[in-house]
Specification:
228 residues; EC 2.7.7.7; alpha/beta; magnesium; globular
């Protein structure tokens, strides 16, 4: 069986080199490309403020994170969950950069991007050259329900990305076949187990706000990508 970890982060901004920090990590286990229902999810106090612009994106205010652990307090649990498995993310350089900045700050070894990263943006651009590769665009292309997606949320984004990843790997039927008869959970079971853990969030932004934000995020993330 092939184990991999699909993960996402929410942050106070776009660049850890400028002092931005992680406030949420969600990760889920895949076996043979299917979610097993095993989830790592934690909210993190960033030890700094959260700019209003960031709150508009993910809905978190610093008051929501009072009493939550610092990254240094959850680092070992996160590393134990991911083990040495490949790490799947949408625009992986962005999330790896934040995770590695946090790991370095608390004296842990960084994750090796070259040997562990699987970037679903790269996969989508190779499979559909010239077409949008945002998570929303891919969900629409594959007919994946976006009705729950208002503000950005690491756990929900992982749920959506898990379904996108199956399609990028060859489609839902191929993925279900990979699981084999011995698997106790289907793809739907794993996704539903994840969905049941989604937190309640603030009222979502308008469609216009989401469109403007997505364009801005893609611009910034592309800049981070090319600077690496």
């Amino acid at each position: 069986m092939k184990r991999s970890i699909l993960f996402d982060t929410e942050t106070t901004g776009f660049d850890p080199d400028m002092g931005d920090r992680i406030i949420e990590i969600a990760a889920l286990e895949l076996i043979d490309d299917l979610p097993t229902g095993e989830v790592y999810h934690v909210l993190i106090h960033p030890e700094r403020d959260i700019p209003p612009e960031a709150t508009k994106v993910h809905g978190f205010r610093i008051e929501d994170l009072e009493g939550k652990p610092k990254f240094s307090e959850v680092a070992d649990g996160f590393l134990e969950f991911i083990g040495d498995s490949p790490m799947i993310a949408h625009n992986a350089r962005f999330d790896f950069k934040f995770v590695n900045a946090e790991l370095k700050a608390c004296g842990r070894e960084p994750l090796d991007y070259a040997s562990r990263a699987i970037d679903t943006v790269e996969m989508a651009r190779k499979k559909y050259p010239g077409l949008p590769a945002s998570l929303d665009a891919l969900c629409r292309r594959f007919g994946i329900d976006l009705s729950q997606r208002g503000t950005h949320n690491a756990l929900l984004d992982c749920k959506l990305l898990a379904e996108v990843y199956v399609e990028l790997m060859g489609g839902r039927q191929r993925g279900l076949g990979l699981a084999g008869p011995s698997r106790s959970r289907s793809m739907t079971d794993g996704i539903n187990a994840l969905a049941s853990r989604l937190p309640r969030k603030m009222a979502p932004p308008t469609a216009e706000e989401l469109q403007v934000h997505e364009a801005f995020v893609n611009t910034i993330k592309d800049a981070v990508w090319h600077r690496e």
